[in-house]
UniProtKB/TrEMBL annotation:
Keyword Cytoplasm belongs to the record: no
Positions annotated as WD repeat: 119-161
Organism: Ciona savignyi
Protein name in the entry: Uncharacterized protein
Coiled coil: none
Gene Ontology CC: nuclear pore outer ring
Assigned keywords, A-Z: WD repeat
InterPro entries in alphabetical order: NUP37, WD40/YVTN_repeat-like_dom_sf, WD40_repeat_dom_sf, WD40_rpt
Signal peptide boundaries: none
Gene3D superfamilies, alphabetized: YVTN repeat-like/Quinoprotein amine dehydrogenase (2.130.10.10)
Tagged with keyword Signal: no
Amino acid sequence: MEENVVRTDGFVTAIEFCPYENATKLLAYSSADNLHICSVAFQHEDQSSHAEKQSVRATVTHTENLLTYSQNDINCISWSPVSNMKYLPRCAKLALGLLDSTISILTTDFKGETSLLVLKGHTNSVNAVAFEPLEGRVVASVADDSTCKIWDADGGNIIHDIRLLCAGIDVCWNKLQPGIFMVGELFGNLRFYDCTDEDEPPMPTQWLNCKRGGLTSADWCPLNPMKVGASAGTEWVLWDASKSSLPEDTRQSHVGGSVKYRWCRA
């Protein structure tokens, strides 16, 4: 694969492709004090011959510098399923978790109309945010304050506040399991909560344990909800949730330690 290098104005603190069909070419990343949204075109998408497809080139065709932050680093990014670049009106909507304990919901039409809703409730750095993937009406977040919160993405109110046993490291939903979300905790526990009834507190339905602390990331396979993966220390851990709460497989990953674990979205 040929490389396309994008120069940034500082260290990249968070980066996320939009996983939804109507805006799959959008890439959001934060660097220094800025949030950028790019449109990324992969050359093979418009090629037909087998030979041409062997060389893939990613080309950044458009960049928007949407926000400027002052010492409030963006720690994590999540795309809303309402994001759309295929049909008019175009729209991008993101949740941004910040080190100052707030969450920003940003909506833009790329024509100068950009709105920002700030969610306040955490008391320490926000480590992960995740839009509910079917309608995007709610956002889940976890932070170093050992809580997981479910927010109204439009009004900014806290719908549910869940006390965790330790710092929350990751949170994610799965479109094949509507209303269920997974929380990864620092000490190595992954818990699944049922949030289908918004009038009732989310109830834990299942838990997994990676038999080690120092969890750095966790993800729920979008194509097979029985598969769960995580990174902890220098290893990655894999579960088959239909068989056991203990890992199915553990392998060495990066000698210097793993930061992020993600399943392929396609």
